[in-house]
């Protein structure tokens, strides 16, 4: 009889330990939820809320990229970037992208691989960096490496050669496929305080 009592006591103690270790109905306050920032990779930490365009209701400057099916719709911000920093960032990401396209068969027609979305310049160079991602995010991916190359041409022509050395957000539209991507040119200098009043805006 004493042996059976010992068995029951042991079983109760084991059950209590199991329930404490694995609660069946934990309260939200008891859960140790992962912090998305803690799980983020280096790119996401630097870009912050990159995947959320800063102002979906703003008016955009429409810039058809010459000799391509791509149009950029840009919002410029009063956040100055050094000319040399912008040049460095654009050329660095162009070399990386064009090297990939040149060394992979018909890569210009391939949609961005998950590991390349967002596609960024060297984020260790924080004076100026660029990033691109598929947009809208809930639609089938259509942003290709070739479209990305055309968008970079537009960034070079409109921002760098146009001497607009400042932060910019932009959507990437394709003549046939519609909206395919979203991008940003940014850096650590200055504060974003408003639109560039010298640009030609459209709704």
- Assign a percent range to the helix content: 25-40%
Approximate strand percentage: 15-25%
Runs with pLDDT <50, length 5+? Answer: 11-44, 190-203
Most strands sheet: 6 strands, antiparallel
Give the overall shape, derived from the CA principal axes: globular
Extended strand count: 6
Q: Spell out the helices and strands N to C.
A: HHHEEHEEHEE
In short:
By secondary structure, this protein is α+β, with helices and mostly antiparallel strands. It is built from 5 helices and 6 strands, in the order αααββαββαββ.
Tell me about this structure.
Helices cover 33% and strands 20% of the residues. Residues 11-44 and 190-203 have low confidence and may be disordered. It has a 6-stranded antiparallel sheet, with helices on one face. 27% of the residues are buried. It contains 5 helices and 6 strands, in the order αααββαββαββ. The protein is α+β, with helices and mostly antiparallel strands and 203 residues long. The protein has helices at residues 2-21, 36-39, 42-47, 83-103, 145-160; strands spanning 61-64, 70-80, 119-120, 129-134, 166-174, 178-186. Helix 4 (83-103) packs antiparallel against helix 5. A hairpin with a 3-residue loop joins strand 5 and strand 6.
